[in-house]
Design goal:
Blueprint: E1 4-11, H1 18-21, E2 27-31, H2 39-52, E3 55-59, H3 77-97, E4 104-105, H4 109-117, H5 119-132, E5 137-141, H6 145-153, E6 157-162, H7 186-199, E7 201-203, E8 209-211, E9 216-219, H8 226-239, E10 243-244
Helix pairs in contact: 2-3, 3-5, 4-5, 5-6, 7-8
Length: 248
Protein backbone atom coordinates (compact mmCIF):
# COMPACT_ATOMS: atom_id res chain seq x y z
CA UNK A 1 0.00 0.00 0.00
CA UNK A 2 1.37 3.41 -0.98
CA UNK A 3 1.29 5.54 2.17
CA UNK A 4 2.12 8.88 0.56
CA UNK A 5 0.78 10.37 -2.66
CA UNK A 6 0.56 13.75 -4.35
CA UNK A 7 -2.68 15.15 -5.79
CA UNK A 8 -2.39 17.30 -8.90
CA UNK A 9 -4.80 19.24 -11.12
CA UNK A 10 -4.54 21.17 -14.37
CA UNK A 11 -5.14 24.88 -13.85
CA UNK A 12 -4.70 28.36 -15.26
CA UNK A 13 -6.94 27.54 -18.21
CA UNK A 14 -9.47 30.27 -17.49
CA UNK A 15 -12.16 27.79 -16.49
CA UNK A 16 -13.04 25.67 -13.47
CA UNK A 17 -12.63 26.50 -9.80
CA UNK A 18 -8.88 26.87 -9.47
CA UNK A 19 -8.87 28.84 -6.22
CA UNK A 20 -10.94 26.20 -4.43
CA UNK A 21 -9.05 23.29 -6.01
CA UNK A 22 -5.80 24.77 -4.71
CA UNK A 23 -7.07 24.18 -1.18
CA UNK A 24 -7.27 20.44 -1.93
CA UNK A 25 -4.41 19.50 -4.27
CA UNK A 26 -0.69 19.61 -3.57
CA UNK A 27 0.57 20.24 -7.12
CA UNK A 28 -0.79 22.54 -9.85
CA UNK A 29 -0.08 22.08 -13.55
CA UNK A 30 -0.43 25.62 -14.86
CA UNK A 31 -1.30 26.31 -18.49
CA UNK A 32 1.44 28.17 -20.37
CA UNK A 33 -1.00 30.33 -22.34
CA UNK A 34 -1.35 28.61 -25.73
CA UNK A 35 -4.06 25.94 -25.48
CA UNK A 36 -5.98 28.16 -23.03
CA UNK A 37 -5.47 30.84 -20.38
CA UNK A 38 -3.29 33.94 -20.72
CA UNK A 39 -0.13 35.44 -19.21
CA UNK A 40 -2.18 37.14 -16.48
CA UNK A 41 -4.15 33.98 -15.67
CA UNK A 42 -0.85 32.10 -15.46
CA UNK A 43 0.58 34.67 -13.05
CA UNK A 44 -2.55 34.82 -10.90
CA UNK A 45 -2.69 31.03 -10.64
CA UNK A 46 0.96 30.83 -9.66
CA UNK A 47 0.43 33.49 -6.97
CA UNK A 48 -2.50 31.55 -5.55
CA UNK A 49 -0.49 28.32 -5.55
CA UNK A 50 2.42 30.03 -3.79
CA UNK A 51 0.16 31.25 -0.99
CA UNK A 52 -0.93 27.66 -0.29
CA UNK A 53 2.46 25.99 -0.66
CA UNK A 54 1.26 24.08 -3.72
CA UNK A 55 3.90 22.90 -6.20
CA UNK A 56 3.95 24.75 -9.51
CA UNK A 57 4.32 22.93 -12.81
CA UNK A 58 4.49 24.07 -16.44
CA UNK A 59 1.63 22.61 -18.48
CA UNK A 60 2.37 23.10 -22.19
CA UNK A 61 0.17 21.87 -25.03
CA UNK A 62 -0.40 22.35 -28.72
CA UNK A 63 -1.21 25.84 -30.04
CA UNK A 64 -4.85 24.83 -30.42
CA UNK A 65 -7.01 27.20 -28.42
CA UNK A 66 -10.12 26.42 -30.47
CA UNK A 67 -10.03 22.77 -29.37
CA UNK A 68 -8.45 23.22 -25.92
CA UNK A 69 -5.25 21.50 -27.07
CA UNK A 70 -7.04 18.21 -27.66
CA UNK A 71 -6.46 17.92 -31.41
CA UNK A 72 -3.47 15.87 -32.49
CA UNK A 73 -0.92 17.72 -34.61
CA UNK A 74 1.86 16.30 -36.75
CA UNK A 75 4.91 18.36 -35.86
CA UNK A 76 8.51 17.70 -36.73
CA UNK A 77 10.99 17.31 -33.89
CA UNK A 78 12.35 20.86 -34.28
CA UNK A 79 8.87 22.40 -34.29
CA UNK A 80 7.82 20.38 -31.24
CA UNK A 81 10.98 21.31 -29.35
CA UNK A 82 10.52 25.00 -30.14
CA UNK A 83 6.87 24.89 -29.07
CA UNK A 84 7.86 23.35 -25.73
CA UNK A 85 10.76 25.74 -25.12
CA UNK A 86 8.53 28.73 -25.88
CA UNK A 87 5.91 27.72 -23.34
CA UNK A 88 8.25 26.52 -20.59
CA UNK A 89 10.33 29.66 -21.07
CA UNK A 90 7.26 31.80 -20.54
CA UNK A 91 6.18 29.86 -17.45
CA UNK A 92 9.70 30.00 -16.01
CA UNK A 93 9.91 33.76 -16.55
CA UNK A 94 6.55 34.36 -14.88
CA UNK A 95 7.46 32.10 -11.95
CA UNK A 96 10.84 33.71 -11.39
CA UNK A 97 9.30 37.17 -11.67
CA UNK A 98 7.05 36.20 -8.78
CA UNK A 99 9.98 34.92 -6.74
CA UNK A 100 9.35 31.22 -7.19
CA UNK A 101 10.36 28.39 -9.54
CA UNK A 102 8.90 25.60 -11.61
CA UNK A 103 8.81 22.28 -9.78
CA UNK A 104 7.69 20.03 -12.59
CA UNK A 105 6.53 19.66 -16.18
CA UNK A 106 3.34 17.97 -17.31
CA UNK A 107 2.28 17.77 -20.96
CA UNK A 108 -1.32 18.63 -21.86
CA UNK A 109 -4.05 17.02 -23.89
CA UNK A 110 -3.27 15.59 -27.32
CA UNK A 111 0.41 16.31 -26.85
CA UNK A 112 0.45 14.22 -23.68
CA UNK A 113 -1.47 11.40 -25.35
CA UNK A 114 0.92 11.30 -28.29
CA UNK A 115 3.82 11.15 -25.84
CA UNK A 116 2.29 8.09 -24.15
CA UNK A 117 2.52 6.22 -27.46
CA UNK A 118 5.81 7.44 -28.97
CA UNK A 119 9.06 7.37 -26.99
CA UNK A 120 10.90 9.55 -29.49
CA UNK A 121 8.15 12.19 -29.38
CA UNK A 122 8.21 12.15 -25.57
CA UNK A 123 12.00 12.39 -25.42
CA UNK A 124 11.97 15.37 -27.78
CA UNK A 125 9.40 17.19 -25.64
CA UNK A 126 11.09 16.37 -22.34
CA UNK A 127 14.58 17.21 -23.55
CA UNK A 128 13.42 20.59 -24.86
CA UNK A 129 11.70 21.42 -21.54
CA UNK A 130 14.75 20.51 -19.50
CA UNK A 131 17.00 22.63 -21.71
CA UNK A 132 15.01 25.63 -20.46
CA UNK A 133 14.36 24.55 -16.87
CA UNK A 134 16.72 21.70 -15.95
CA UNK A 135 15.67 21.77 -12.30
CA UNK A 136 12.16 20.50 -13.10
CA UNK A 137 10.98 16.95 -12.55
CA UNK A 138 8.95 15.32 -15.28
CA UNK A 139 5.41 14.31 -14.37
CA UNK A 140 4.81 11.33 -16.63
CA UNK A 141 1.78 9.17 -17.30
CA UNK A 142 2.90 6.00 -15.56
CA UNK A 143 3.72 2.80 -17.46
CA UNK A 144 3.65 4.48 -20.89
CA UNK A 145 6.21 5.76 -23.38
CA UNK A 146 6.38 8.93 -21.29
CA UNK A 147 7.91 7.00 -18.41
CA UNK A 148 10.22 5.10 -20.76
CA UNK A 149 11.42 8.41 -22.20
CA UNK A 150 12.18 9.83 -18.74
CA UNK A 151 14.06 6.66 -17.83
CA UNK A 152 16.01 6.82 -21.10
CA UNK A 153 16.99 10.43 -20.34
CA UNK A 154 18.05 9.42 -16.82
CA UNK A 155 16.18 12.27 -15.14
CA UNK A 156 13.93 12.42 -12.05
CA UNK A 157 10.26 11.81 -12.75
CA UNK A 158 6.91 11.61 -10.98
CA UNK A 159 4.68 8.69 -11.96
CA UNK A 160 1.06 9.76 -12.49
CA UNK A 161 -2.28 7.97 -12.59
CA UNK A 162 -5.71 9.49 -13.27
CA UNK A 163 -8.66 9.48 -10.92
CA UNK A 164 -11.23 10.47 -13.53
CA UNK A 165 -10.08 8.72 -16.70
CA UNK A 166 -10.49 5.10 -17.84
CA UNK A 167 -7.48 3.12 -19.04
CA UNK A 168 -6.77 0.86 -21.98
CA UNK A 169 -4.87 -2.39 -21.38
CA UNK A 170 -1.58 -0.73 -22.46
CA UNK A 171 -1.91 1.99 -19.76
CA UNK A 172 -2.93 4.68 -22.27
CA UNK A 173 -6.14 6.61 -21.65
CA UNK A 174 -9.42 5.63 -23.27
CA UNK A 175 -10.32 8.12 -26.01
CA UNK A 176 -12.57 10.87 -24.65
CA UNK A 177 -14.99 10.24 -27.53
CA UNK A 178 -15.85 6.81 -26.13
CA UNK A 179 -18.46 6.11 -23.45
CA UNK A 180 -16.96 5.72 -19.99
CA UNK A 181 -13.68 7.43 -20.89
CA UNK A 182 -14.27 10.18 -18.30
CA UNK A 183 -15.37 9.15 -14.81
CA UNK A 184 -17.87 11.54 -13.20
CA UNK A 185 -18.77 9.74 -9.95
CA UNK A 186 -16.47 10.93 -7.11
CA UNK A 187 -17.14 7.89 -4.90
CA UNK A 188 -16.42 5.44 -7.71
CA UNK A 189 -13.28 7.35 -8.69
CA UNK A 190 -12.04 7.34 -5.08
CA UNK A 191 -12.57 3.58 -4.67
CA UNK A 192 -10.78 3.01 -7.96
CA UNK A 193 -7.76 5.12 -6.94
CA UNK A 194 -7.51 3.33 -3.59
CA UNK A 195 -7.64 -0.01 -5.39
CA UNK A 196 -4.79 1.06 -7.68
CA UNK A 197 -2.69 2.33 -4.78
CA UNK A 198 -3.25 -0.91 -2.86
CA UNK A 199 -2.37 -2.99 -5.92
CA UNK A 200 0.59 -0.83 -6.93
CA UNK A 201 -0.85 -0.98 -10.41
CA UNK A 202 -3.03 0.76 -12.95
CA UNK A 203 -6.33 -1.06 -13.34
CA UNK A 204 -7.66 -0.85 -16.89
CA UNK A 205 -11.31 -0.73 -17.92
CA UNK A 206 -11.14 -4.46 -18.62
CA UNK A 207 -9.74 -5.17 -15.13
CA UNK A 208 -6.15 -5.79 -16.20
CA UNK A 209 -3.50 -4.86 -13.59
CA UNK A 210 -0.45 -3.02 -14.92
CA UNK A 211 2.19 -2.83 -12.15
CA UNK A 212 3.73 0.63 -11.88
CA UNK A 213 5.15 3.24 -9.57
CA UNK A 214 2.47 5.72 -8.44
CA UNK A 215 3.60 9.09 -7.07
CA UNK A 216 0.70 11.38 -7.94
CA UNK A 217 -2.99 11.26 -8.82
CA UNK A 218 -4.45 13.68 -11.37
CA UNK A 219 -7.85 15.34 -11.19
CA UNK A 220 -8.90 17.30 -14.25
CA UNK A 221 -9.80 20.84 -13.25
CA UNK A 222 -12.05 21.51 -16.24
CA UNK A 223 -14.87 19.08 -15.44
CA UNK A 224 -18.03 20.26 -13.67
CA UNK A 225 -17.50 17.86 -10.78
CA UNK A 226 -13.76 18.55 -10.40
CA UNK A 227 -14.00 20.20 -6.98
CA UNK A 228 -16.29 17.53 -5.53
CA UNK A 229 -14.06 14.85 -7.03
CA UNK A 230 -10.94 16.37 -5.46
CA UNK A 231 -12.50 16.84 -2.03
CA UNK A 232 -13.99 13.34 -1.97
CA UNK A 233 -10.75 11.72 -3.09
CA UNK A 234 -8.70 13.56 -0.50
CA UNK A 235 -11.17 12.61 2.25
CA UNK A 236 -11.27 8.94 1.24
CA UNK A 237 -7.49 8.67 0.96
CA UNK A 238 -6.96 10.32 4.32
CA UNK A 239 -9.45 7.96 5.97
CA UNK A 240 -7.49 5.07 4.44
CA UNK A 241 -4.30 6.38 6.14
CA UNK A 242 -2.76 7.65 2.91
CA UNK A 243 -0.71 10.81 3.47
CA UNK A 244 -1.36 13.56 0.90
CA UNK A 245 1.92 15.31 0.24
CA UNK A 246 3.49 17.36 -2.52
CA UNK A 247 5.67 15.23 -4.80
CA UNK A 248 9.37 15.64 -4.05
Amino acid sequence: MVLTVDLNADMGEGIGQDALLLDVVTSANICCGLHAGSPQVMADTMKAAMKRGVGIGAHPGFDDRANFGRTRMALGADDLASLIRYQVGAAKAVAEGLGTRLDHLKLHGAMANMATEDVEFAETAFRAALQVAPEMKLMVIAATAQQTAAENLGVPFIGEIFADRAYNDDATLVDRKLDGAVIHDPEFASKRVLAMLEAGAIISASGKHIPTRIDTVCLHGDTTEALEMARTLRTRLTKASVTIQRAK
